[in-house]
Amino acid sequence: MRQKAINTGLFLCIFLTLLNCAKRGSPTGGEKDITPPKMVLAEPDTSSTNFKAKRIRIYFNEYIKLKDIQKQLIVSPPMKTTPQIMPQGNASKYIDIKISDTLKENTTYVFNFGQSIVDNNEENPYSFFKYVFSTGDYVDSLTVNGYITDAIQKKPDNFVSVMLYEIDSTYTDSIVYKQVPTYITNTLDSTSTFQITNIKAGKYMLIGLKDNSGTNTYVPKTDKIAFIKDFIDVPTDSVYRLNLFEDNSYYRAARPVLAAKNRIIFGYEGTVNADSIAIDMLYPEPPADYRYRIIKDKEKDTLHYWFTPLQADSLIFKVTNPRVMVRDTFTVKIKELYSDTLTLSPAQKGSLSFKDPFSIGASTPISSVTREKISVLNKDSVAVDFTSEIDKKENLVRLKWETLPNEKYQVTLLPGAIDDFFGETNDTLSYNLSTKSFADYGNLRMILSNVDSFPIILQLTTEKGEIKDEIYAEETKSYYDFNYLNPGKYLLRVIYDDNGNGKWDTGDYLEKRQPERVSHFPGVLDIKANWEIEQDFILRDPAPPAPKTAPEKDSVPANIEE
To answer: Which residue intervals define the domain SbsA Ig-like in the entry (predicted)?
Structure first.
């Protein structure tokens, strides 16, 4: 009997032990755990000097796991061979770091884990835990602080890399294209501020990158860039503003393709202005009656080149872009294809706004419009007077008349109303349109003060940045009216059009030119039907002060540089 009791007790002990092991790291009830894990030991110790180890083990006070380590871990200076971090996927009380790269002499290294170390129960993050060591006699301890903005959008990107390049005898501005930086950090996904730590004294170039290429170098095709115009001296007590933009210096012409018997498409990559690209035929020599038209595609980085027939097996073109001093030569072989034919389509279908004229687009270049073969009738079948014009850049015919509320219109095009580049004309077409009541729209009056200079561009956008309306102002006015707005939420920005070309211009890294300045209205404008809103906007320096979430107060100086 006593032996049976001992066996039963032994079985219960083993069962409870196994149950406890199986439930390791699982919540047992009670209050929710909100305490993040902590490091209890590191081998070698953090802040070690004369470091020569190839493996590091870091112990924690509870079971942890690594979350999104590929995005969150930042190693500064970057290593050619990415360190191996283990274990991944399983809960553990330690992390192993295996270093395969050859470490630089007299250099302080920082492993910033961001938000990747979390406890196994509630995933409380051990925020921005850093493991630091030096291959020299001391650990560098200087810092550079700053914050990220976007040159045109109200909210900056997350996961922005911030880099320091040491200024020495080998430095050139083009180093950012081919060499990883001396120091690096990342804003990750929770803040727009940054702090690069453990820097040695010296002179540096400060760069920000939305590193979509993932190379720790600048790839203009995919990345945004920000820079401080002048070199910075460390130590420094300045807070630096890095203003991200898409550089327009990148350009590459794609090989052209014969898309139809009378059309070639010339694709390109980059943020360049399509108007700066020139296409010239080198062979054969164009005859005296040769004609062509170039129209930018509305959605793609493509130029459509329409041309009159030629007797040739192939065509040779010179494609130049003086803006970036690039010239390419391409051969296009002629083959049997159908010709593009004229098709018309209205830009507006059904509803007609009070601000925009009725527009008709075409599948081939529009050559002429005959107003006498177009009629506009209201709902009482009374003719409405209108004007017509051709927008060759957009390849549209615009019809303008005084639109009235709660009205219906019928637009009729008789054959011959619109002719295209090749002499084709339209068939009989009819479009039915209607207008809403004034009460279906909202109106916004903006009163600006503290405008630094003119001209300016006021733009209303959606919260995603799509431009819905804009006003160009060359001098100060008492107010600026946006009328007949569809109900919804809008953002407002004011662009300082310093070069007076009527649009916002981005920056250029190699020319050290910053983007044109933009001031954002701090709130969201809620436009409601049949409402009129009057809103004051006191413009401030487009280089806003550092956010309140910047580094600790005692480390944030008063002066801000960009």
So the answer is: 33-135
HEC profile of 8-69: HHHHHHHHHHHHHHHCCCCCCCCCCCCCCCCEEEEECCCCECCCCCCEEEEEEEEEEEECCH
Looking at domain 355-434, which of 3.90.226.10, 2.60.40.1220, 3.40.50.720, 2.40.50.140 is its CATH number? 2.60.40.1220
- Name the residue with tokens 């980085």: 301
- Alpha carbons within 13 A on the beta-carbon side of 386: 27
pLDDT-derived band at 29 (thresholds 50, 70, 90) equals low
Q: Is 170 helix (H, G, I), strand (E, B) or coil?
A: coil
- The rounded mean pLDDT for the chain is 90
Residue 491, strand partner residues: 461
Q: Which band of pLDDT confidence, cut at 50, 70 and 90, is reported for residue 15? A: very low
DSSP one-letter string for 239-256: EEEEEEB--TT-EEEPPP
CATH number for the domain formed by residue range(s) 262-333: 2.60.40
Closest CA to 442 of 470, 501, 482: 482
Per the CB < 8 A criterion, the answer to whether 327 and 318 are in contact is yes
The pLDDT of residue 542 is 65
Q: Indicate the SS3 state at residue 528.
A: coil
DSSP label at residue 16: H
- The domain covering 440-538 belongs, at the CATH homologous superfamily level, to Immunoglobulins (2.60.40.10)
Q: Which residues are CB-contacts of 392 (< 8 A; sequence separation ≥ 6)?
A: 293, 365, 366
In angstroms, the CA 449 to CA 481 distance is: 15
Instruction: Find how far residue 65's CA is from the centre of its chain.
Output: 32
- What does 451-462 look like in DSSP terms, one character per residue? --SS-EEEEEE-
Residues 72 and 117: their CA atoms lie apart, in Å, by 9
Spatial contact of 435 and 407, defined as CB atoms under 8 Å apart: yes
User: Which residue, among 358, 356, 364, has the nearest Cα to 412 in the 3D structure?
Assistant: 358
Stretch 452-471: mean pLDDT: 96
Report d(CA 376, CA 366) in Å as an integer.
Answer: 20
Quote the pTM value.
0.82
Burial zone of 192 (CB within 10 Å; 0-12 exposed, 13-18 middle, 19+ buried): buried
Q: Sort strands 396-400 and 387-391 into parallel, antiparallel or unpaired.
A: antiparallel
Q: Is 429 exposed, middle or buried (0-12, 13-18, 19+ CB in 10 A)?
A: middle
In the chain, where the domains are located:
39-244, 262-333, 355-434, 440-538
- Cβ proximity of 379 and 398 under 8 Å: no
Question: Which CATH number does the domain 39-244 belong to among 2.60.40.1220, 2.20.28.10, 3.20.20.370, 3.30.200.20?
Answer: 2.60.40.1220
